[in-house]
């Protein structure tokens, strides 16, 4: 029987080391020998399970009777449907899941003598795992909503160019340069080339200046 530890973070997350430390400490405190004495990690989105080390764990390492240890459900995945599908796969293949944030999953059900207690604890675990999977998906949906709202607000303020690309230059600097066009000293396409702007970007700046005048 093997204990395999896994931790996932997004590429922008700065808590990879913290997750590794938490899993390592748990193993040490509970006298658990982690497989290969390591924590398998992926720095990748939790929207799907197409992650290199996770796939190695699932396809090549975990076997019936083994245990997968994670700190939180959202470190496993953030898509509720896919996460529950993975959890069902482990259950069907007699692979135990230990989630540090869910104390009931740390109790080994197979060691409990009372069949009624086993059934109750298993039911509780299933309910909590589904609840936390729902919360993980809700959190990422909330984050994506805030990002969309932030992008839209920047677009409305004229701070977002070409649907997400940052401005190539400050609008005040462009205005000073555009005076040469207004004075007839330069043609629009000449200034456009000098500033390294696309036609769409150049006229977006031009329209903003004229709107403010």
The Rg value, from CA coordinates, equals 27 Å
What do the pLDDT scores average to? 83
The oligomeric state is single chain
Distance separating the two termini: 74 Å
Can you list the strand order of the major beta sheet?
Answer: 2-1-3-4
Q: Classify the beta-strand content into a percent band.
A: 5-15%
Number of helices: 8
Counted beta strands: 4
The unreliable regions are none
**Which structural class fits the helix and strand makeup?**
alpha/beta
**Sheet having the most strands:** 4 strands, parallel
Helix content: 40-55%
The coarse overall form would be: elongated
> How do the SSEs run, as a string of H and E?
EHEHEHHEHHHH
What does this structure look like?
Helix content is 55%, strand content 12%. It has 213 residues and is of the alpha/beta class. A four-stranded parallel sheet has the order 2-1-3-4, sandwiched between helices. Helix 4 runs antiparallel to helix 5. It starts with a strand and ends with a helix. The relative contact order is 0.09. The mean pLDDT is 83.
């Amino acid at each position: 029987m093997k204990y395999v530890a896994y931790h996932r973070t997004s590429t922008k997350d700065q808590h990879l080391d913290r997750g590794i430390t938490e899993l390592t400490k748990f193993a040490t405190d509970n006298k658990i020998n982690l497989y290969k004495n390591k924590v398998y990690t992926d720095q990748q989105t939790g929207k799907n399970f197409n992650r290199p080390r996770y796939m190695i764990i699932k396809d090549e390492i975990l076997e019936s009777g083994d245990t997968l240890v994670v700190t939180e459900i959202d470190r496993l995945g953030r898509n509720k449907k896919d996460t529950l599908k993975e959890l069902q796969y482990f259950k069907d293949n007699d692979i135990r899941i230990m989630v540090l944030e869910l104390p009931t999953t740390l109790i080994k059900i197979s060691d409990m003598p009372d069949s009624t207690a086993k059934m109750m604890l298993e039911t509780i675990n299933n309910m909590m795992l589904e609840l936390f999977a729902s919360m993980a998906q809700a959190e990422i949906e909330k984050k994506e909503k805030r990002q969309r709202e932030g992008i839209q607000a920047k677009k409305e303020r004229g701070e977002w160019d070409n649907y997400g690309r940052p401005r190539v230059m400050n609008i005040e600097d462009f205005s000073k340069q555009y005076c040469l066009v207004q004075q007839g000293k330069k043609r629009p396409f000449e200034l456009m080339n000098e500033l390294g702007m696309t036609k769409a970007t150049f006229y977006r700046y031009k329209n903003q200046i004229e709107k403010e005048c």
